[in-house]
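INFO  loader      accepted 1 record
INFO  loader      residues=598
INFO  predictor   begin
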Amino acid sequence: MKRRLTIAPASDEEIDQSSLDVFGLLRRVFSYAKPHARKRNQLVALVIFRSAALPALAWAIGAIINGPIQSGNLTAILLATGGFAALAALVQFGFYFRIRHALELGEAVIHDIRNAVFEHLMRLPMSFYDRTKLGRIIGRMTSDLDAVRVGVQEIVFVSIVQVGNMIIAGALMLWCDWVLFSIMLAIVPVIWLLNRYFTRRITEDQRLGQESFSRVTATLAESVNGIRVTQGFVRQDVNADSFRELVADHSRYSLGAGNTSAIFLPLLELNSQFFIAMLLVVGGYRALDPDIARPVGDIVQFFFLSNLFFEPIKTLGSQYNNALTAMVGAERVFRLLDTKPEWTDAPDAKALPKIQGRVEFRNLSFGYDPSKPVLKAISFVAEPGRTVALVGHTGSGKTSIINLVAKMYLPTTGTLEIDGHDITRITSDSLHRQMAVVHQHSFLFDGTVLDNIRFARPDASVQMVIETARQLDCMDIIDALPKGLYTQVGEAGANLSTGQRQLVSFARALLADPRILILDEATSAIDALTESRIQRSLATLLQSRTSFVVAHRLSTIRQADLILVLDHGRIVERGTHTELLTLGEIYAGLHRHFTQSS
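INFO  predictor   done
INFO  writer      dumping tokens
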């Protein structure tokens, strides 16, 4: 019997049950149209023109019937018909530009919002990415923003035209025949009640549907990234079952919204058809009754205006589903844009001048959750140009220390100083420009080997890149690639081996000429021979740089100036390799185990 994965419910933060602030969302979406004010203003003028022109055409039909046709004046009929045709052609000409301007403005607005979201994402701290699934972020940038695009291009301005038609047609109907108009007003409360009831139901289904789609996207991204593990443990069928449940969950919400709309639209149309039936009865009576004797042209005119009044109700009803999808999408995108970083640089933070590389932890404690510290009372000094090695079991706090040095997080208590500058009082960018990190799992961007090495220093010449690789004693490995430095690495470096990706990451870090270098299990993916070559090169290259080295292979840290042994977030031993072996405690035990394993 196959065991299926459990589908986690969406959190309260993901699904907001409050009502949509439609006007607030519209105001914010169209704030991005300000840089495109000329096109926006032209579009508004076209919308106003079309809103007035369509009722004018309907009014003109009645006027022609009551005037030239009733009088039998052929010349007047031809002139009136020509004028009607000219106005109709002008309306359609304006319609073309309205559609075109709406498409262009919608694209411009989404372009600016998408850029704003990306820039915001680039500035959020690591804690945000620790708790947010990749698929949810992709969902905001794709399906949610596409829904907003549809809202701007196809719904907002169409809806304004429809509402404008209703208002002007209603005013003309009232002026034309207030008795028939009062009959129409009788069904307005019914339409209002229907709208209020179905709005609530469709909004809820749309929110749940879009959130379920985010779960589908997140699971898809996770499954593709973890395909090797999935196939390695023969979990294809189990994961497919789990994904099938997520897709079925999404379909259920989509069908719910569709079924609700399927009830809503016929009810709206039934009301309009009921009114037309009443119009035929009452209007026919008023035309035939000799005491009233309304001109037939007035009845025809009222009939066309009533069609122009009720047709928008059906149009708005049919667009309602897409409109709510757009509003929910906008709500989720702006919720992401409004996500406040857990910390930012202090308002009075200053740029860090060129540093020597002295790093001091002073009674520092830190927790990803402040109530659960993972580092406790950490104190040590890394002198400029020295190498500090961090040793300890998994979860002892090694990675947390280097994350703090890199200012990916801020201390909970205590202080961390770089060249005597409190890390909370300096700008992050000025620190990162003088620092480089090589992680255990290196990440390469799609492009060439050369592009990736120059990532931290785009202005570096090819010769500088070659010289850096030679200093690392790995240029022969790069030359052995199909096109050398110009080899395409593929997505996330898929065209290179793990060791080759790591060598590119080393070259990228050293080309940046950092004052502080962090190596987080940086040689674990490299074979012993290549590691030995790099270690000999690093011994020279690191002499003038402060470096932090995290390694499980103790052979890589023998020459460290200071070795810190961590256990459950505390420093339990410190000293050089020789001093700690002489001490004969935790480090000595680790070294013995490593030697026996080797």
